[in-house]
Amino acid sequence: MKIALFLLASILLCGTSYADMKPVREFKERTPQAYGGNAFGLVYGGALTENAKGKVNIHPVTYELNGITIAANVYTPANYDPAKKYPAVTVAHPNGGVKEQVAGLFAQKLAELGYIAVAADAAYQGESGGEPRHTDIPFFRTEDIHGMVDLLTIYPGVDVNRIGMLGICGGGGYTLNAAKSEKRVKAVATLSMFNSGRVRREGYMSTQIKDIQERLKAANDAREAMIKTGEAKSAGGTLDLEQLTDEYIASIKNDLYREGLLYYGKTHRHPNSTFEYTQASLIELMTWDATDNIKLINVPLLMMAGNIADSLYMSEDAIEKATGTNDKELFLIPGAMHIQTYWKPEFVEQEAAKLKEFFGRTL
To answer: Tell me, what DSSP letter sits at residue 233?
Structure first.
């Protein structure tokens, strides 16, 4: 059993430990994975199709973070000159998302505003390395964001005194967590923040509180099965096109999951994007919360959300608990539901304008 537990720890941590964690010290160029006719694999509206002189460019890179290869896209402003200094922003993608979707859209929007922006696939997800695939543990997701900050501190042209963070959906919750201790950043923003720990523990909109202990037991059973078989059981859903009929999508009651199936499964589908996560991840997820010690955030904080989003309660809760900064704002987008803030042009333009004002003032 001791040997099995050691092997499990090696699987979960990819051979790393707190003692030998290593920050990002260098990066390399990589060849992007084309998809759907886009050379960079981007699936959002208005995405770059090529790097044109004098315009916003995209630079696919890889770097090593704690022994795991991370795949990222760095967006640079028009007429980028590495000899100059630019403010910079990390962009963390939603749960199940990848850098080619909404995270890439907002990285591009920030580059259009004059920022160097990086969107990276989380470890164990997307093009990044790590086994078992689809591991979704708060420590790793938080470390991913610290790693993006590492990258920016060594990327040519970045003003290390003007780095900010943006996190979207689940990436927003993990960005809040990173910001509690990440003192290299001067401002933090979220869009449609999703508190993964709270939802995995209590259920979405607090609908699964009664069966918390049963679900924790199932997560432990999944971990035990991993010890015995070496296979990681998946939770969450798949994105099988044959199952994603209009009728099935319309039958989903809450707005977030219904529109999420449409966004991730059809309109902005990407082969690396999935709703899956390992069931054993719930052991860590269910005992974690994005708002724990949130008062440690002492820099300007902007939280954006749709005013009719059924996920709004999570942003309202976080902004209220963020007592460590007096410079904080909950910015509501009229008429927007959660997923609509990712792609609807009229909402994206409002959000980009707010980020322009916020980061312009704070960075």
So the answer is: P
3-state class of 166 per DSSP? strand
Helices 138-154 and 170-179 cross at an angle (nearest 10°) of 70
Strand boundaries in the chain, DSSP class E: 28-29, 57-65, 68-76, 86-92, 116-120, 158-168, 187-191, 234-235, 277-278, 301-306, 328-333
Whose CA is closest to 297, among 331, 266, 320, 316?
Answer: 320
Does pTM top 0.90 for this prediction? yes
Q: What is the pLDDT of residues 202-255, one digit of tens each?
A: 999 999 999 999 999 999 999 999 999 988 888 876 777 778 888 888 888 899
In the DSSP assignment, the letter for residue 296 is G
Specify the amino acid at residue 363: L
- For 16-56, write each residue's pLDDT tens digit: 455 567 899 999 999 999 999 999 999 999 999 999 999 99
- Report the C-alpha gap between 248 and 262 in whole angstroms: 10
Contact 119, 104 (CB under 8 A): yes
Nearest of 100, 104, 88, 94 to residue 149 by alpha carbon: 88
CA distance 204 to 177: 20
Closest CA to 223 of 281, 277, 276: 281
Superfamily of domain 2-362: Alpha/Beta hydrolase fold, catalytic domain (3.40.50.1820)
Residue matched to tokens 């990848």:
98
The DSSP output letter for 33 is -
Rounded to whole angstroms, how far apart are CA atoms 247 and 245? 5
- Torsion angles phi and psi, residue 102, rounded to 5: -65, -35
Gap between the Cα atoms of 247 and 137, Å rounded: 33
Task: Give the pair of three-digit tokens for residue 284.
Answer: 């860590």
Structural domain boundaries of the chain? 2-362
Contacts of 192 (CB under 8 A, 6+ apart): 168, 169, 172, 304, 305, 306, 309, 311, 315, 338, 339, 341, 342
